[in-house]
Amino acid sequence: MDLSALGFPGALPDWSNLNILHRNTLPARAHFYSYPDQESALSFNREQSYFNSLNGTWKFHYDISPLDAPTWETANTSSWADIEVPGMWQLQGYGNPHYTNIDYPFSVNPPNVSYVNPTGSYWRQFEVPEQWGGDQIRLRFEGVDSAFHVWVNGEEVGYSQGSRNSNEFDITDYLTPGQANDLAVRVYQWSDGSYIEDQDQWWLSGIFRDVYLIPFSESSIVDFQVDSELGDSFDEGSFKVNVTIQGKEGDLAISLLSPNGSAIDEWKGSSSDVYEKKLSRDDFQICSSTPHPDFFDVADELGFYVIAESDLECHGFGSIEETQEEAAEWLSNNPDWEEAYVDRARQLVERFKNHASVIIWSLGNECFYGRNHAAMSNWIKERDPSRIIHYEQDRNATSTDMYSQMYSTPDDVREFIKTHTDKPILLCEYAHAMGNGPGGLVEYIDLFRTEQLSQGGLVWEWSNHGLLKKEENVTYYAYGGDFGDEPNDGDFIMDGLVLSDHSPMPSLKEYAKVIQPVSVKLAKNGSAMTVVSHYDFSDLSHLEVSWHVVADGLKTDADPLDLPRIPAGENRTVALPSGLNITQNEAWVTVEFRLKEATVWAPKGHVIAWDQLHIQRPSLKARDLSLVRRQDSGEFQKNGTKLLYKSGNSSFGFDLLQGNVTWKINGVDIFQRGPELSFYRALTQNDAASSGDGPIWEQEKIPMIYPQVRDVTWRVDNDGAIVHYKVWVGVKTRAWGVEADMIYRIPTSRPQLQLEARGEFVGKNDSHVIPRIGLMAVLPEAFDGVSWFGRGPGENYKDSKQGSRMGQYSSTVPDLFTYYDYPQENGNREDLRWLKIGNKDVTLDARRTKNEPFSFTARRYMPFGLDDAQHPHDLKPLNMTVLHLDYDNNGLGSATVRVRPFEKYRCYTRPFNFTFDFNIV
């Protein structure tokens, strides 16, 4: 190829020229559609507007370089492949998806981009509706990654970059009236703009959002801005509308309508109607890349608060330089990049300035801090002084109206506030929702509700971003590396509150609970309850309240509960419901708040909030729930290293060498192995992170922990049989372990096994924290039915159980399992009083003595089977039921970004002593 004939390398192409951000694009404007009349406008259906979609099937040609791309004069598009628009070409068979969190997937030499730059050529025809004759015709792209040129009927119209920004071209003069028009678009995978689009993302390319035509008549509104102002008393306000008109002058009428389409009356004090929206919750949504415009419409309707963020991130320079200041010199503090930065702010503000949901503008994400952020801030403040400005890496809040941090602990924030009282602080990211987690959400919500300067936080993030991949007989959600993409950041993209298919994970239920707008707590005297409203604007009159009692073997019907008026942000103490007659040792009074009427987002009766008040009556005598039967006293038989004991229809086997225990009833297996001490659980993604406990556990060889029998004694007396193991539970290559006693008691009074386990950690263990302390037993696969009294119905952990109610639940072993996109520890249930597991013929009842709480998992996998799997299809179920009963286990935390489980949720290597009773019922 003769590159000189193409102007190479002397002429900079637009996509590698920092001086060319756009060519022939129209000024950024508010996003809106024009309708023929008020009725169609109130439908909010763009199909009834002046709008002509160009989405659909286009012709497509793929090349590895723009130099290879066909010219439109010679292109034979009839031989090209079909491709769907909107869509990413990597997901339609061209190139491979590539995932990185921080590092750039290309050689870093800004603003230069390699000529080896995959290029997609798109072509289709379109006709302009006849009734649009004489109008200005605009061609609008809502998103093209990362840069593109446009041709109409063979003539170049223009160029633009900024993947998640809208771009609009006036194509009126390029059209052929009354005929089909050719539209051609050439898209470049990389551009100089790619250096500031280094988000935690899949690198995907193409026309990935809507493409459409819109007409503007000879005299039309092309832009407008609505500003609202409140009086000093906040009980009256006004709207100001600034309208940009093109073409002829004419009359302009503006109407302010209520949701039902009627005009809003003039304010006349207390006799006037009040137009308000009652919010169910005060949520925030932030994006490190600008979302589709439709998102803001939804946010307006549902009442979300939105931090709208510029499509701007250059995180990768942090891997190149040692300090933030040095990293900023590449782009953020480089005057050559000022216009590129300000352009991102301009595009954002102009497009979304009229959305009531947008309360804060953000200057971008993880771009360090420099002069170009100051320039963005100055432009925004001049253009829209009504909103405040955010940017996390402006650590001194020089150009912003607030401090911002990521992944600080509640204690970190409280310490910060002590010395920074001039501006509020926001956690723009916290509680990294990766896999099974996060834990400790309730501590953050307590921070937000008790510290006035702490303005809340945003859980990172909403959704996993796995891409559906099909391989032979397997379909699964892929992450970094699954497409051969190097370098990559693996499963770090699986960090949302919902799975890749957008089905909710347990963490979403937990999050919904801790942010609920009403809470109830037991008053100090125990005879009353305090109802607290966390609403900012609404009282509780839109909710109906009921209560019922849950206890072991009891659930009463719900009864209504009358509350006094509770204004927003206030609380009232009221007596416990009349008719409360609790005869059990403990019970839970459940109070629920439901919608009286349906809303746009939830039906009538939807539960907005709930709490359970734990009522204890320690003076009452505990019921003996075991099944009492007489059976004959047995005797021991020793055969080599095997010890057998038979009593009635029960037979027990004790391995004197390895400590294994078995139990049969009438020849049917109950315990095929165990119960034995267990200290390891499969890792969560948070555990496995470099800042998690997993690497330390691996260093201390905790996954390799195993028991060694030191001594065994046994005897039979009038109460039954006792087998006493003295065990050393140690790890290979390390000089630490657990000195433990395992005391098995088999009473003559009933088919029961009682196990007392006590132990102490000795030696040098740098971890000081261990995954779990408890028992593990192997039961037959047929033991498939499970019921329990404890928290449920879904999984929960000690630092993530607020969203799980105490109650009696039933399930099957397979249904207890949570299938995360990346396999890991899952399926735990906390605060059990008892557990029953078995089949139609026999059921094993497990509970701790004195009714002390415990947790359990039951699944078809050993912990190492979960650790070894990288995708759900890697899991190979065993022909057994693996039961874990835990005295303690480590919390979840969110250590993928620094925050391990808080102190009170840690499982420390300290002495333990617990007893479980196992009965056949």
Helix-strand layout with pairing:
Elements: E1 22-23, H1 38-43, E2 52-53, E3 56-63, E4 81-85, E5 98-100, E6 119-126, E7 136-141, E8 144-145, E9 147-152, E10 155-161, E11 167-170, E12 181-188, E13 197-198, E14 201-203, E15 206-207, E16 211-216, E17 219-230, E18 237-247, E19 284-286, H2 293-302, E20 305-309, E21 313-314, H3 324-328, H4 338-352, E22 358-362, H5 371-383, E23 388-390, E24 403-406, H6 410-419, E25 425-430, H7 441-450, E26 454-459, E27 467-471, E28 474-478, H8 506-514, E29 518-522, E30 528-533, E31 543-551, E32 554-555, E33 559-560, E34 571-575, E35 586-595, E36 607-616, E37 635-639, E38 642-647, E39 650-655, E40 661-665, E41 668-671, E42 673-678, H9 685-688, H10 694-699, E43 706-717, E44 720-730, E45 736-747, E46 752-763, E47 772-780, E48 785-792, E49 805-812, E50 829-832, E51 834-838, E52 843-848, E53 854-859, H11 863-868, E54 880-889, E55 912-920
Parallel strand pairs: 13-21, 19-20, 20-22, 22-23, 24-25, 25-26
Antiparallel strand pairs: 1-10, 2-16, 3-4, 3-6, 5-14, 6-12, 7-11, 7-16, 8-15, 9-10, 9-12, 17-18, 27-28, 29-30, 30-34, 31-32, 31-33, 31-35, 35-36, 37-38, 38-39, 39-40, 40-41, 42-47, 43-44, 44-45, 45-46, 46-55, 47-54, 48-49, 48-51, 50-53, 51-52, 52-55, 53-54
Helix pairs in contact: 4-5
GO molecular function: beta-galactosidase activity; carbohydrate binding
Enzyme class: hydrolase
Family: Belongs to the glycosyl hydrolase 2 family.
What do these coordinates show?
The protein is mainly β. The protein has 5 domains: 215 residues, Jelly Rolls (Sandwich), CATH 2.60.120.260; 45 residues, no CATH class; 126 residues, TIM Barrel (Alpha-Beta Barrel), CATH 3.20.20.80; 101 residues, Immunoglobulins (Immunoglobulin-like, Sandwich); 284 residues, Beta-galactosidase, Chain A, domain 5. It is built from 11 helices and 55 strands. The strands form 14 sheets. A 9-stranded antiparallel beta sheet has the order 43-44-45-46-55-52-51-48-49, with no helix packed on it. The chain has a 7-stranded antiparallel beta sheet with strand order 1-10-9-12-6-3-4, with no helix packed on it. α4 runs parallel beside α5. It catalyses: Hydrolysis of terminal non-reducing beta-D-galactose residues in beta-D-galactosides.
